[in-house]
Amino acid sequence: MPRARVGDNRGMSFAPLSNDTFLRACRRQATDYTPLWLMRQAGRYLPEYKATRAQAGSFMGLAMNVDFATEVTLQPLERFPLDAAILFSDILTVPDAMGLGLSFAEGEGPRFAKSVRTEADVAELAVPDLDKLRYVFDAVTSIRKALNGRVPLIGFSGSPWTLACYMVEGKGSDDYRLVKTLMYSRPDLMHRILAVNADAVAAYLNAQIAAGAQAVMVFDSWGGVLADGAFQDFSLAYTRRVLAQLQRTGIDGQDVPRIVFTKGGGIWLDDMKDMDCEVLGLDWTANLGKARAIVGGPVGGPGKALQGNIDPNVLFAPPAQIVTQVHAVLDSFGTPHTDKSTTGPTHIFNLGHGISQFTPPEHVAALVDAVHSHSRALRQG
Question: Would you please indicate which residues are annotated as catalytic (active-site) residues?
Answer without folding.
Answer: 40, 44, 53, 90, 166
